[in-house]
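Appendix B, example 12.
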Amino acid sequence: MSAPDNFVETVPDATPGSPAPAQPRRSRARTRSRIGGLVFHVFSLAVVVVILYPAAWMLMSSFKPSNQIIGSVSLIPEGGGFQNYATALEGIGGVSFWTFVVNSLVLAVASVVGITLSCSVSAYAFARITFPGRGIFFGCMIATMLLPFHVVIIPQYIVFNQLGMINTYWPLLLGKFLAADAFFVFLMIQFMRGLPRELDEAARIDGAGHVRTFGWVILPLMKPALVTSSIFAFIWSWNDFFGPLLYLKAPGMYTMPLALRLYVDQTSTSDYGAQMAMAILALLPVVLFFMAFQRHLVQGVATQGLKG
């Protein structure tokens, strides 16, 4: 039976309580996602501005005259120029700027060498050699990480003073060559524990002792941990202020952080402009060092959680 000519087919309306069409739902979801992404990016930019503002202020202040630095809220320098950098490169207190740079480099490089050598050997002993009292010694080493540095300042100073090592670099370097930095030892132990024990057994079958096993088998595989330790050791030694302040008395032995203090004089006019310029110059080697080894740093930190 055919339908009448005036018959029009209609679609029934959605009943109350039936689910909404999929297209409007997806549109609302995309809108919420865009709003959430916008809020996240605005918040991230605000955090970046707060974090980078001190660095931007220091950089801009290095181009300002000293009378515009204190009490000024404007980042844009008015006048000034590169005079602060010229003053910083001339040195201060009769000591050349490059003397401070060389002193800091000597301490930083020596710290890297001492830490990588001593801490890697100590880590191998804890991770690969079984000896009586290993657990007790390991616990004592970890306990030193919980001991605040300020607790041992006076005893250490008395010991080094009696040994005649004040105003030398020995108090700042001796602990580096004796594996006194438990953090680096622990980092290397965790890395070695991820290396297969079969490597040691194969070396032992070939007649290698602990020295050859460490030097020819384990040490080449520790490159990520060694690079990570080197980066941290270099940066910490370069930026160290309190240690050199305690043990170094002659201006000719000062490092870069101590040289910055010389520009602030409580009894006469302080040259804040030159201080800001030297702070920028002192920051450049650390930034360049970090940028050069950033890939190795990320790789070394990431591999600490891997097990072979």
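The chain has 14 helices and no strands. The mean pLDDT is 85.
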